[in-house]
Amino acid sequence: MKEKKKLKLKKFYLHPITSIILLIVLIVFLSGILSALEMQATYNTVNPNTNQLEPTLVTVESLLNYDGMKFIFSNAARNFISFAPLSMLLIALIGVSVASSTGLIQAVFKRHLGKLNKQTVTFILIFIATASSLINEIGYVVLIPLGALIFLANGRNPLAGIVASFCGVAFGYGATLFVGSLEVGLIPYTTSAARLIDETFHVSLTSNLFIIIVTSLLLSILGTIIVEKIIIPKLGRYREKKDFEATSEIEVIDIEKEEQTKIEEEKREKTGLRYAMVTGLLVILFFIYMIIPNLPGSGMLLDMKETTYLNQLFGVNSYFQDGFTFMMALLFLIMGIAYGIGSKTIKNDKDIIHGAEGYLSQVGSLVAIIFFFSQLIAIFKQTNIGTILTAWCANLINDLSFSGIPLMIVSVILIAVSNLFLTTPTSKWAIFSPVIVPALMQSNISPQFAQFILRVGDSMTNGITPLLAYFAIYIGYLNIYNLNKEKPITIRKSIGMVMPYFCITSIFWILLLVGWYLIGLPLGPGVLPTI
What we know:
It contains 22 helices and two strands. By secondary structure, it is mainly α.
């Protein structure tokens, strides 16, 4: 009797771009269906002038019609050009590519980071990534490429460096070492919502300072453990394919000459690093001088129309905040050139340009991914589905009538769920704050603690939603360093890589929130979890 052969189904891997196109088609059809069903939501916002609640009705905008198709096709170029991750990434990569091509990044790792154990390097990377949310989303565009280069220089899987950097920024967003742009964006909504109960209530910029500092340290330690013990073993070793030519020739090695060459290389390397350190320090001092007010020629990067220094530094129209990506690129660029001159890896301007081109040539596929992601996010935003789902989550808090710790936990979970569809913290807080802040105040929980609850919920799910604009950079870099081009890293697989990080840090966030409240530790100077 002949044995029946088992049929094996060949796995089919959808390229991320194909998946994005399918998602766009799904959203367009879904918008038409939901619009026909008259899906809508009403949420309240606080008028800061009258201190009164004002209802806002939101309905689904159908794209499955003439006007919808016109929006999709006429705005494609605009969506791409105005997509923040694209411009930020390209600007940052100019500096990083020069620093890499001249050998600066490799030399720094060899001389300094290379002497540390691998776990310490991972901790430093995650800690910097977590703290980077001090200034918007700079961590995504700078640290994801750097994370790959650092891990590769250490002989480790660069995919792990990408995952570590992305997780540090995404799942620790808002946990930093000082108050920054996020506070400036959230506090007006927190204050307006608190004044529905107490007309004189004031929320200071440092109201969450202590808790975000402690959280950034704890998250970095926890993240290092997750990456080292769970994520890296799953990713496995990384081996670049190299071509070896068979030869029967015998090469005679002059040991003395080889050692002399090595000594000369080390000497040039030290000189290059010295040049880079001095020029880097001068550039940093120049930037610092530009954010000090009331000195001769200083304050160029501040918005002097604002009254407080933090608003001048991190306000909506702050030159420091808007130009920080370019400042970082300029720092890497100048240090890279200085290192190249000192180490003699560059001899003229053409060496700089050619070196930068070699690294930048890798990001062609990433730019294509960013184009389709920009369309996905713009189209989904146009439908209003994310805003409606967020409004439903906010209204559900009112309907449940919880108080105390149950209210805190439910609020975090609902904010985390809504963040899957509406990823901008200020947009969510504009909807949630008039509901959560008064409800918590009636349970004797301070508005400042309510604001931290928003940070927790926002951070929990940042890394697992493709609707996060900077997810495009993450998945794009995973595929740049993916050696098996026949099996691209899909959206599903890229989310699967960070799932251990998501699950463990989500539990950590909730335990931290409840523990801090029960112990009654101060959130910031003179601010407690309770009123």
